Amino acid sequence: MDAPPSRPGGRLYLYVLIAIALGVAVGWAKPEWGQALKPLGDGFVRLIKMLIAPIIFVTVTAGIAGMGDLKRVGRVGVKALVWFEAMTTLALLLGLLIVTVLKPGADIHANVAALDTSKLDKTLSAPRPHGVVEHLLAALPESFVGAFVQGEILQVLVLAILAGIALAGLGHTRAQPLLNALEQLGSGLFAIVGVVMRLAPIGAFGAMAYTIGTYGVGTLKNLLFLMLCFYSTALLFVVVVLGAALRALGLSIFKLIRYLKDELILVLGTSSSESALPTLMGKLEALGCKPQVVRLVVPTGYSFNLDGTCIYLTMAAMFVAQALDVPLSIGEQLSLLLILLLTSKGAAAVTGGGFITLAATLGSLGTIPVGGISLLLGVDRFMSEARALTNLVGNAVATVVVSRWEQALDLKRAKETLDHGAPLELPASEQSASHGT
User: Fold this and answer.
1) Does the model's pTM come out above 0.90?
2) Angle 70-102/224-236 helices, nearest 10 degrees?
3) Considering the domain 12-423 in this protein, what is its CATH number?
4) Strand, helix or coil at 140?
5) Model confidence over 341-400: pLDDT tens digits?
6) Where along the chain do its domains lie?
C-alpha cells in the first residue's frame, strides 16, 4: 500500500490559514453571509468522513494481516490500549482539578427550569446508548455493510480487527491475494484523499464564517473564562504531559507540533481531527514509525485516545454543576470520572461529538440536570477546535511512544526529521518497504 500522503500538498496549509482569517472576517462583517456559507464546511467534512471508514478498515486490516504474527498484533494492541487509558485518565483528572480549583461556573447561578432547551432537544434528538452494556453493544455492528453506511468508526474498527486476524490466520499463501487487493484499494483511497484535500481552504472558510456569523464574538463574553480555562488546560496537557513523554525519548513536543503544522491548521479550520487522519499517518510513517504500527495505533486512537475530548467532558460537566449550584461529593466526582472513561470512548472525533457524549454522560450520572448543558450551546463550537487539536497531537504522541515501546521507531530518523521540520526523503529501500506491509 502506498503510504498515506504526508502533506496536504505544497502550500495548502497556508491557503487554509488564509481561508480561516477570511472566514472570521466575513462572519464578523456580514453574519448572514457567514451563516449561508455553512454548507461549504459541512460539505468538506462530509467528503472526509466518507473516506474515513474505508481507510480505517483497509489500513487496520492490512496492518494486522501484514504483521503475520498474531502475538505481535496483540502485543501492540495491548501496549496501545495501556497508553490510551493512562493518557485519557490523566486528561480527565487534569480537567477535573483545574475546573474544581478555578470554578468558572460558580458565579452564573442559572436555573435549569428557565433555560431555553429547544435547541438542545433538537441536538440530542438522535438515539444514543445509555449504560455500560448498551455502550459495549453499540461497538458491535448489526451488519458488515451497515457499519460503513452509518459511518460508525468504532464498529468499522471492530470489523477491521476481525478481518485482519482472519487474514493473518490464513497463512501467507492464501492471504496474499486478498492482502494485495487491500493494498490496491488503499492506494486508490489515498489518491481520492489527495483530490479532496485540495478543497480544504473552501471547507475551512465556510466552517469558520458560519461559526462567527452564527454565534458572534460577543456571545463569548459570559463563558470566556470557561473557554480560557479549557484552552489553558489543553495546552498544559500537551506541553507538560505529552511533552514529558516525548522528552523521555529524546524528542521535542514543540518540534513535533511544528512538524504537524499542516494537519493542525486543517483541524483548526474544520474542527474535526478526522480531516487530518490520512495525512497524519503519512507524516508518522515518514517520521520513522513502522507502517504496521502506525496503521494499527492511529485509527484505534481515534476512538480510544481522545485526550482533548476527555478534558472538555470533565470541565464542561463540572461547569454545568457549578452553574446550577449542584454540589458533587468526592464519590460523585469519582463516579463521573468512571462513567467518562467509558463514554469518552464512543465520542466521535468530529464536530459536536463531545457535546453529545457530555449529554449521555450526565444522563447516566443522574445528578446533574442534562438540560444544563444548554449553557454551553453558544461556545461548544469554539471549544471543539481545541478538543480536535489536542486529540490529534495526543494520537501522534501515542503512536511514537508505542512504536518506540515496540522497537518499531527509527529514533535517529525521527530526531533528524523533527529538526528539519518536514519529512525527509526516504532511501529507495525504505520507500519500497513503506509502500507495503
Assistant:
1) no
2) 140
3) 1.10.3860.10
4) coil
5) 766 765 544 445 566 667 767 766 767 777 777 667 656 667 878 888 999 999 999 999
6) 12-423
